[in-house]
Design brief:
Length: about 200
């Protein structure tokens, strides 16, 4: 009896040790898995934050190299042109104004990307293509598309076109073109023109 009792006790101890090891192993596995999950959730947020910070610094500082390649800018122009073509008749009054501005950007952007890759003027033109024009088009499509909205879009495109044309002439005619001044003018135009005035509808 005593021998059987000792055997049973020994078996019980061994089983207890094994169960303890299993529980410890399960706990360690669960903890490691939770830590890995947290890391996988944190990394994209950190990357997004880093990209936002990079964009903010670029936007605020003169001399930060353009974030976009000339190929990306050209591709974006193609997509914008396609978008306004798809909209068709619904935005017919403003299509010509957009396309005229697109053509001027296509003419100027490659030169600036090649010769002024770290210039504020290049950054502002990139911003025009990547942020300003898509935002202007989006706001117009969401609005009433009345005469007031149309005139705002048309006059905005025309003003930017004239500023880019003046920049082209100045850049080609003198080696001392004031690119910072041009960049400031374009930046201010985009700031002022970023919101489309909404034409109120009156009841008949």
């Amino acid at each position: 009896m005593k021998t059987l009792f000792l055997i049973s006790t020994g078996v019980g101890i061994i089983i207890g040790i094994l169960l303890t090891l299993v529980l410890v192993g399960a706990l360690l596995y669960y903890t490691k898995r939770k830590n890995n999950q947290k890391e996988s959730e944190t990394i994209p947020k950190e990357q997004a934050s880093f990209e936002d910070d990079l964009r903010d610094v670029h936007h605020q500082e003169m001399g930060a190299e353009s974030k976009f390649s000339i190929q990306q800018i050209m591709d974006k122009l193609v997509r914008l042109n396609l978008q306004i073509r798809i909209e068709g008749e619904s935005i017919q009054p403003i299509i010509g104004s957009f396309e005229k501005l697109f053509d001027k950007i296509r003419e100027l952007a490659p030169t600036l990307h090649a010769e002024e890759p770290d210039g504020e003027i290049t950054w502002q033109i990139d911003e025009m293509v990547v942020d300003f024009i898509p935002g202007l088009l989006k706001d117009y499509l969401k609005g009433n598309q009345g005469e007031l909205e149309q005139q705002h879009v048309i006059s905005t495109c025309e003003e930017l076109f004239l500023q880019l044309s003046e920049l082209t002439k100045e850049y080609e005619s003198t080696a001392n073109a004031d690119l910072k001044r041009n960049a400031s003018v374009i930046k201010e135009t985009m700031r002022i023109r970023s919101k489309i005035p909404v034409e109120s509808k009156t009841n008949a």
